[in-house]
Q: What sequence folds into this?
């Protein structure tokens, strides 16, 4: 199911989509790029799944939400969403980027790994 996109938005996003497709077509990992990406991703993961939800729960406690049952549960639910949201976003984003990369490189049908014994 593809959502209809207005032509104005499609024209405005065309240069961004072209740059992304060029990047996905030409990018290759090296050890240096992989290490730098891994360190940056590790910092992002720690901050987004631990520091931000922890700060939010301390902030909610300072507001006095822990004295009212339903507000306490609402704060806990928002904190849980803040800690799982980035993980789900990374998984879905990685899947969509890989799917687009296969389409751009022309290998959309090759889902079976090659090599090894048959």
A:
């Amino acid at each position: 199911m593809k959502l209809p996109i207005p032509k104005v938005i499609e024209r405005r996003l065309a240069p961004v989509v072209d740059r992304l497709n060029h990047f996905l077509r030409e990018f290759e990992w090296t050890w240096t790029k992989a290490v730098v990406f891994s360190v940056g991703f590790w910092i992002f993961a720690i901050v987004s799944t631990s520091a931000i939800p922890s700060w939010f729960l301390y902030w909610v406690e300072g507001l006095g939400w822990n004295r009212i049952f339903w507000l306490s549960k609402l704060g806990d639910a928002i904190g849980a969403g803040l800690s799982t949201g980035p993980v789900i976003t990374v998984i879905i984003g990685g899947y969509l980027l890989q799917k687009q990369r296969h389409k751009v490189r022309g290998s959309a049908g090759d889902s079976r790994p090659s090599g090894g014994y048959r």
Residues 28-105 form one domain. The two ends are 37 Å apart (CA to CA). Helices lie at 7-26, 31-63, 69-105.
